[in-house]
Each structure stands twice: as structure tokens, then as C-alpha cells.
């Protein structure tokens, strides 16, 4: 039986329900422009699309990438007066999207959120790193985090069914995506600026999760550690950097 997409809630209503009603942000949501941009970017990463048509006004799903949240675009007819494009979200995936917003707050990059949700091995790695990164800090309050909620959040990260289980919101005052208060964008960048002397392992991981493979590789080359998790990431970063270098060399050979 064909799904009636017109019965799906509008994406803007989903955003307001999650961010204002569940997470307690002040209305109207439009005043939180930076957060909205971040959440829209996340939605597009979870449902990758391609523009089509002469004026690039229509959309279709990019089938070369995984779709984690299903969106539907309805373009008004040319005869409709005062109508607007409507983006609707599959209600069965709203819980997953809500959880993805919290993951984005911790890890920053939508790319990392997609990897977390699509790869069991990546999920374990990121969950292990988050636990080590946060629980070794003396003050979670200084990061604007609620301790009990964060502990539960970290416990659930590697095991919860994120399609049905609601992760607790560990952020006390504002979501990191708002760029306000102590977060300055996301927690990893906050740790980078708040820690007077970052360990080489912390620096390596922060560069890696911020998609700066060259800087992450430089740290990995210099890193000497007995920590098995850091050893695992060190090997991963060195391998990815070498693969990227080989690919660049191959492109250069074609020029």
C-alpha cells in the first residue's frame, strides 16, 4: 500500500516539537538561526538529496548514500497562490532524528553522526572515545553538562536502539549547535580550547573528528601510547591518511 506523504508532519513542526517542547528552547524557533541551520544540515545529511530540474528547484533522493530519515518534498503548483514548498518527515524516524541532534551536539560533524548510525564498528569506537573523553574531565559543569544525564547518555550510546529509545539530553543550558555559552559550536572544540595542555591523543582525536586528517596524522605519527583505544585510532588515522595520499598521487599521475 502506497504511503500518503501528506499525512506526515512538516519538518518545521518536527523541529519545533523536538527543540522547543522536548529540549526547552524559547519560541519562536526562528530566533535560533545558527541552530536551525545546523539541524537542517543534519537532516540533509541523514536524507541526502540532489537538486533537479531546469532551475534546481525540485529535489530527489541521492541513492548513492544511505538514507536514515525519509523526507518528502512537495512543490506547490504554479496555480497555487501564496503556497510554499513543504518538507515532511516520516514520523517513524522522528525518534532517530531527535537522537541524531544530540549526537551532533557531542561529535559536531554530520558526517560523524552518519558514520555512528550506519557502522557498528564506528559506533563502538565513537562511543568508547566519548566515554573516555568526558569521564576523565574533572568538571562537567564547566562544559554545561548534566552529570547524571551524561552518564546515562554514555551508557546508552553503544547499545540503545536509536530508532525507538530516547537518549537523555545531557546539555544543561543550550545545545552546542547554538554556538552559545561554554560550548562555542560543539563539545570537542570546547575541550580543545578549555584544556590548557591537551594530550597528544586528545589533539589527534579532535583533529580527526573535525575532519582535519593532515593534523590528525601529524599527531598520530608523534603519539606513543599504551592506551588500546588510542592505539586503535592511531592505526586507523595513519591508514586513512596513507590511502588519501595514494589517491592524491594517483590523481596527480593523470594530470
Question: Residue ranges: pLDDT <50 for 5 or more in a row?
Answer: 77-83
| N-C termini distance | 52 Å
Write the H/E string, N to C. HHEEEEHHHHHHHH
The side-by-side strand order for the widest beta sheet comes to 1-2
Structure explained in plain terms:
Helix 9 packs across helix 10. Among the domains are: 81 residues, no CATH class; 59 residues, no CATH class. The radius of gyration is 20 Å and the shape is globular. About 3% of the residues have low confidence. It is mostly helical. It starts with 10 loop residues before the first helix and ends with a helix. It is 51% helix and 6% strand. The chain contains ten helices and four strands. The strands form two sheets. A two-stranded antiparallel sheet has the order 1-2. The protein has a two-stranded antiparallel ribbon with strand order 3-4. The longest helix has 27 residues.
Topology (elements, then pairings):
Layout: H1 11-22, H2 33-46, E1 49-52, E2 58-61, E3 71-74, E4 86-89, H3 94-107, H4 110-118, H5 120-135, H6 147-156, H7 187-194, H8 200-209, H9 213-222, H10 228-254
Antiparallel strand pairs: 1-2, 3-4
Helix pairs in contact: 2-3, 2-4, 3-4, 4-5, 8-9, 8-10, 9-10
Amino acid at each position: 500500500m502506497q504511503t500518503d506523504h501528506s499525512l506526515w508532519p512538516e519538518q518545521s513542526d518536527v523541529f519545533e516539537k523536538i527543540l522547543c517542547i522536548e529540549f526547552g528552547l524559547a519560541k519562536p524557533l526562528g530566533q535560533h538561526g545558527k541552530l536551525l541551520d545546523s539541524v537542517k544540515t543534519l537532516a540533509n545529511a541523514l536524507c541526502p538529496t540532489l537538486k533537479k530540474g531546469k532551475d534546481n528547484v525540485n529535489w530527489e533522493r541521492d541513492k548513492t548514500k544511505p538514507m536514515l530519515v525519509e523526507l518528502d518534498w512537495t512543490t506547490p503548483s504554479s496555480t497555487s497562490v501564496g503556497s510554499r514548498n513543504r518538507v515532511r518527515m516520516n514520523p517513524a524516524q522522528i525518534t532517530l532524528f531527535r537522537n541524531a541532534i544530540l549526537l551532533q551536539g557531542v561529535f559536531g560533524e554530520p558526517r560523524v553522526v552518519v558514520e555512528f548510525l550506519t557502522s557498528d564498528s564506528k559506533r563502538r569506537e565513537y562511543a568508547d572515545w566519548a566515554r573516555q573523553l568526558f569521564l576523565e574531565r574533572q568538571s562537567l559543569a564547566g562544559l554545561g553538562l548534566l552529570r547524571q544525564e551524561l552518564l546515562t547518555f554514555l551508557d546508552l550510546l553503544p547499545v540503545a536502539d536509536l530508532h525507538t529509545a530516547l537518549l537523555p539530553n545531557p546539555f544543561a543550558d543550550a545545545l552546542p549547535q547554538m554556538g552559545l555559552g561554554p560550548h562555542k559550536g560543539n563539545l570537542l572544540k570546547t575541550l580543545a580550547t578549555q584544556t590548557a595542555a591537551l594530550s597528544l591523543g586528545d589533539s589527534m582525536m579532535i583533529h580527526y573528528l573535525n575532519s582535519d586528517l593532515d593534523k590528525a596524522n601529524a599527531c598520530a605519527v608523534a603519539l606513543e601510547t599504551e592506551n588500546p583505544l588510542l592505539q586503535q585510532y592511531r592505526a586507523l588515522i595513519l591508514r586513512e591518511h596513507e590511502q588519501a595520499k595514494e589517491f592524491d598521487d594517483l590523481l596527480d599521475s593523470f594530470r
